[in-house]
UniProtKB/TrEMBL annotation:
It catalyses: [(1->4)-alpha-D-glucosyl](n) + phosphate = [(1->4)-alpha-D-glucosyl](n-1) + alpha-D-glucose 1-phosphate. The keyword Transferase applies. This is glycogen phosphorylase. Its EC number is 2.4.1.1. It comes from Clostridium felsineum. Gene3D superfamilies: Glycogen Phosphorylase B. GO terms for biological process: carbohydrate metabolic process.
Length: 540
């Protein structure tokens, strides 16, 4: 793959891109993946461009008030690193023309990223691109029309020749609808156009949580115009009834991928009853190292300089401690084991698992044997998620010197926490974590993973050598049973392995840090991921 000029040109469609903390175009892991991918494409000179949306208010700024209540806050953001391409395209929503202005990101060293924006005086519907994941049904459909149909029109208006259209998640599916419509305009039937379009579409599926795979009422789709001229039967032949975006994308792609090897099994099983779908292969996620990893840590690991490795880690731990002090007033201890945990607040991620048995956890926290820094956001419309955050905040009040909650999780917190913690805790209910990338950031920074064998970790874990597993890959539908099983396993590994190694065998700890870095830095680099996407998904 040395001559990149012969590679197919790829248009990557994603609802979100995490490029920089100052850009309000992301919510979480999906955006982190997309942003890292575009940066890698730029670094390694791949012919790839991104299509996304310029979210005026971004996702949510989320805080907790004096009474422990989570609240969301929105403001309009300035994007002063975007160039006006002078291109405008039109899409139809409720039979009305909506104009989308096209901006080009010019900073932060990414592959070209075009962002669509409906916040224009000529639009009645200026709100469409206001809030990322801000609404359900009609407002989400409108956003997806802008991304998909507007995105294809943007490529045509800019005269960019594309070989492959890559949909990151089902949100981008309407781009496929527009490809079909274009072909029908040249005289093809719907079925012929589907067949031809499929040859140029690839799809990445993400969440194994069934509700996370968006579906829409076909009647709503018709009324808003998301059918793009197709009949009810034609729509149903792709996405079923109700219309499932993931199912539609699985049927409208030549090949699909899951985002880790275990997720490949989960996804194939999850969609096994869907006929006429593309095959789902596994391409494990990866990260853009320059964005997330302290280069001094990689260098010290490569030189196997134990003193440097430890001193650099302490430098990063002190940065995290200073950050915590500034945000919360709490002074953490440099000598005490620091556990980091930041996740979207969703029940399957089990943020509270470590608190399950207070007989075990109370003394560890009260005596300062461990300290835990949490962060995370709930979706603004998710009361269960907000309750999880409120519970974490109440734990931080119960253990005021050893449990911290950092409000308003973002890329900056993500970076500081995955560089400055000693241990990175991850305890989803298996197999519901598709991949996870925060653990990769941690691993390459010499922060030891302590994780359930879910997502990417089964591919990387050498237990007791580059981190730890707990739970032995056990799965059960009985949540009470599995939560008890996994929390017992967590306590066992924490008290018998992690804590003794940290306090009594520093030499082994530092060797594990080195192993953690060296065993992950190549395979979980976005460079490998790009090579796999090009060779397994994009090339004929
Ligand atoms: C890395 C990162 C994520 C993704 O991490 P997961 O392991 O999938 O939870 C999400 N949000 C932010 C801000 C991050 O930095």
């Amino acid at each position: 793959m040395s001559n990149k000029s012969t590679l197919p040109t790829v248009a990557y469609f994603s609802m979100e891109y995490a490029i920089d903390v100052s850009m309000r175009t992301y919510a979480g892991g999906l955006g982190i993946l997309a942003g890292d991918y575009l940066k890698g494409a730029k670094d390694y000179n791949y012919p790839l461009i991104g299509i996304g949306i310029k979210w005026k208010q971004g996702y949510t700024d989320q805080f907790v008030d004096k009474d422990n209540k989570v609240y969301d806050s929105y403001k309009n953001y300035d994007y002063n690193h975007l160039k006006d391409t002078k291109v405008k395209v039109k899409v139809k929503i409720y039979d009305q023309d909506v104009t989308c202005k096209v901006w080009l990101l010019e900073k932060f060293n990414t592959a070209p990223l075009y962002l669509l924006d409906t916040d224009l005086p000529e639009n009645d519907n200026r709100w469409i691109t206001a809030n990322l994941y801000g609404g359900f049904e009609d407002s989400r459909l409108a956003q997806e029309i802008v991304l998909g149909i507007g995105g294809i029109k943007t490529l045509r208006a800019l005269n960019i020749k594309v070989d492959i259209y890559h949909f990151n998640e089902g949100h981008a599916l309407f781009a496929g609808f527009e490809l079909i419509r274009e072909k029908m305009e040249t005289g093809l039937s719907f079925n012929e156009a589907v067949k031809k379009s499929r040859e140029e579409i690839v799809f990445t599926t993400h969440t194994p949580i069934i509700e996370g795979n968006e579906s829409h009422s076909i009647m709503r789709m018709l009324s808003i115009g998301a059918n793009n001229g197709f009949t009810i039967e034609e729509l149903a032949s792709l996405g079923g009834v109700p219309f499932n975006m993931t199912v539609g994308a699985l049927r409208l792609s030549k090949i699909s991928n899951a985002v880790a090897q275990l997720h490949k099994e989960t996804a194939n099983d999850m969609w096994k009853n869907i006929k006429n779908r593309s095959n789902i292969i596994g391409i494990t996620n990866a990260i853009h190292i320059k964005t997330w990893v302290d280069p001094d840590m990689i260098k010290a690991a490569e030189d196997f300089n134990k003193t440097e490795l430890w001193n650099n880690h302490i430098k990063n731990k002190k940065k995290l401690m200073a950050f915590v002090k500034e945000r919360t007033g709490i002074q953490l201890k440099e000598d005490s084991l620091l556990i980091g945990f930041s996740r979207r607040a969703a029940p399957y991620k089990r943020s509270n698992l470590i608190f399950k048995n207070s007989n075990i956890i109370d003394p560890l926290l009260n005596e300062g044997k461990i300290q835990i820094v949490f962060s995370g956001k709930a979706h603004p419309l998710d009361d269960t998620g907000k309750h999880i955050i409120e519970e974490l905040v109440s734990f931080s009040k119960k253990y005021p010197n050893s449990v911290v909650f950092l409000q308003n999780y973002d890329m900056e917190i993500g970076r500081i926490l995955t560089q400055g913690s000693d241990v990175w805790l991850n305890n989803p209910r298996r197999p519901l974590e598709a991949s996870g990338t925060s653990g990769m950031k941690a691993a390459m920074n010499g922060v030891l993973n302590l994780s359930i064998l879910d997502g990417w970790w089964p591919e990387a874990c050498k237990d007791g050598i580059n981190g730890w597993q707990f739970g032995d890959g056990m799965e059960s539908d009985d949540t009470e049973f599995i939560d008890k099983h996994d929390s017992d396993a967590l306590y066992e590994v924490l008290t018998h392995k992690v804590i003794p190694t940290f306090y009594s065998d520093r030499d082994k700890w530092i060797s594990m840090m080195k192993e953690s870095i060296l065993s992950t830095k190549d395979y979980f680099s976005v460079k490998r991921m790009l090579e796999e996407y090009y060779s397994k998904m994009y090339e004929k």
